[in-house]
Each structure stands twice: as structure tokens, then as C-alpha cells.
Design goal:
alpha+beta, 2 domains, three-stranded mixed beta sheet, 4 helices, 26% strand
Length: 181
């Protein structure tokens, strides 16, 4: 049996096989004319058996199985992944606050509720002087009002910068780290 692989030699390597011609099938009439955008490669017996598994192409004139890698994530997808990963906070004044904090919708909603309460009432709920805030692993950290405001601003800046990237308003991902006092 004689089988030919058809490919376009004018494109960058690897050139994908675009089709096969089996010269021994009853309906076979003739091979197409080759030219700058069409070439034929006569498969060996080994090639013939292998062509049914995987994706094949030509690399430097050799019939080769081609590895198709996944497309790189878009900038918007990278922004969403960064949002899901959270923001790594380093506290220069209180190292115990240094951790990665969640930035997902639930974390943002809670952060907003407490920030609004703090802004309206001038104190944490129940007149507390500190608040326990969990990091992305669930470990609690104790924040004063000033520290919490710094955390809220850092996360808000990060989330809004990621929103801008996702909306196509910015083309650079923000740093995944921030420093608070």
C-alpha cells in the first residue's frame, strides 16, 4: 500500500499534515500537483501504522508526531487566576500579619462590609479595638483599625488593578505582593 501525507511546506515548522492519499483505494484517481504551498511525503510502513494515533506533521522533511501544547492563557485569564490566588501581604511593622490574603468575591464582600462599618461607625463591630482576619489558609491574624485599613486599601488596589486588566483597560498584571505598615 502506498500512502502520501499532504502538507504545506511554506509555513513554519512543524507543518501539520492536512490529509492523506491512499493510492490503492478503489476511488483513487491521481495525486495532486505539488507546488510552493503543497507537498507530498510518501509514508513508510511504520509511518502508515502510526498515523492513526496522535497528530502528525513534518519537521525538516521528517514525518513526526506533533505535540500540541495548550494555548497560553489570555491576560484576562491570568488576571482571574491572580485574583483567585490572593495577595501576599508583608507587614513591615507587625510581621505576624504577613500572609497571603484571599481576594475572591466572598473575601471582598466581607472586607467591604467591615470597611463600611468602620468608616460609618469609627470602630469595628461591637466597639472592638481589633478584628480577627483569616488569611488564605484560614489562619487568623489580629488587626488594629489602622492595620485593617491598610490591608483593605492594599487588597482593593490589587483587585481594581486586576479588574482593569480583565476589562482590557490595562495590559500589565499588578504585582502579587504588597507591603503595609
Amino acid at each position: 500500500m502506498t500512502v502520501y501525507a499532504q502538507y504545506n511546506p511554506s509555513v513554519a515548522s512543524p507543518q501539520m499534515v492536512e490529509g492523506y492519499f491512499d493510492t490503492e483505494t478503489p476511488n483513487f484517481k491521481a495525486l495532486p500537483a505539488t507546488g510552493p504551498t503543497l507537498a507530498l511525503y510518501q509514508l513508510t510502513a511504520t509511518d502508515e501504522g502510526a498515523r492513526f494515533v496522535g497528530v502528525w506533521g513534518m519537521v525538516n522533511g521528517v514525518f513526526t508526531e506533533i505535540s500540541l501544547s495548550a494555548a497560553a492563557p489570555t491576560l484576562a485569564q491570568q488576571a482571574q487566576a491572580a485574583l483567585n490566588a490572593g495577595l501576599a501581604i508583608t507587614s513591615s511593622g507587625t510581621p505576624a500579619l504577613s500572609a497571603t490574603y484571599a481576594c475572591n468575591e466572598a473575601a471582598q464582600a466581607r472586607l467591604n462590609r467591615v470597611s463600611v462599618y468602620l468608616q460609618v461607625n469609627g470602630a469595628f463591630p461591637n466597639n472592638a479595638t481589633t478584628i480577627q482576619w483569616v488569611d488564605a489558609t484560614g489562619a487568623p491574624h489580629t488587626f488594629t483599625e489602622a492595620q485593617f485599613k491598610s490591608l483593605a486599601v492594599a487588597i482593593a488596589d490589587y483587585v481594581l488593578a486586576l479588574d482593569d486588566v480583565a476589562l482590557g483597560l490595562a495590559s500589565t498584571l499588578p504585582a502579587t505582593t504588597a507591603t503595609i505598615p
